Amino acid sequence: MKPIIISTFASVAFGLSGFTFGQEPPNPKIDFDGFREASAEVAKLREKRRISEAEFLRLAAEPGTIVLDTRSWEAFEQLHVKGARHLDYSDMSAETLAKVIPEKGTKVLIYCNNNFEEQKVEAGQLFPSKMRRVALNIPTFVTLHAYGYTNVNELAPLLDPKTTKIAFAGTAAAEQKGMKGAEVPNWVVGEMVNVTADGSLAKEAPDESQQHPVGFPAFEQLSIRKDEKNGGWIVSGTVCSTNSGIRYQGVAIYAIYGQWTKLIGMSDMKGEVLLRISSSADKEGKTVTPDFLFVGDHPDAPPLREGTRLRRYPLAPRK
User: Fold this and answer.
1) Which end of the chain lies in a sparser environment, N or C, as judged by fewer CB atoms within 10 Å?
2) Segment 41-72, tens digit of pLDDT
3) What's the predicted TM-score (pTM) here?
């Protein structure tokens, strides 16, 4: 009788839930049929939007075009198409896309690892390929289309990074001297400072962060580079504990404009930072250029309160 009892219980349980084997469990936030429809629409559109290397270069040079890299942050930081903006595919949403590509009609160029031959370097492997059927360009195109972006263009060919005319930037660029236009990010090391009673920064504070039981939030890696296209600077890096190396999320990043500070963003869930800093107007309406960047505490904490110890980073090109 046990098999009959178990079978009856299972039938009742699944019957009450409205679910039977072979059917997709209901979930109002998941729409596989919608994904298939979007994929079918992209299938018709994509062949007209797959472009050559020469066309990619021509479109990338046009004002307003955005080159989008949706690979992982680690892959992007290691090596990417020069001038590309980064948004990890797993983080794509209406909100994050709006920050990177505000206008739905913007000309967007996409590429992925499968567009370039794999390269072995001291730091590991560059452009490791995925299976052809799940190459990142495919879901990226479908997702952008589903969110309403109407001018997506995909780099079509498989290229040799050492011979392509496409320029690269990234931390591994120094190992790829044969790559056209390869750049090494401007890594900088911060200095410890104390905040005095009048809110100014006292230099040469002793760096005791390693002796602190938890450590202080600081950039483990930091790249500050001029944004030649839009002006200002592009800042990228990872915020970690100076002692344990644990990544900090939700850490406030400030720019210092003389004695005036401005919150410019926070580290994300992975402790990563990718921000753009520009000149800004002070309280009197004057245009002020920031001098320093620093890692604060949480956004609600006063950034320059007396006794605060922080690590600051000059916003000046390294010579």
Assistant:
1) C
2) 998 899 899 999 999 999 999 999 999 999 98
3) 0.54
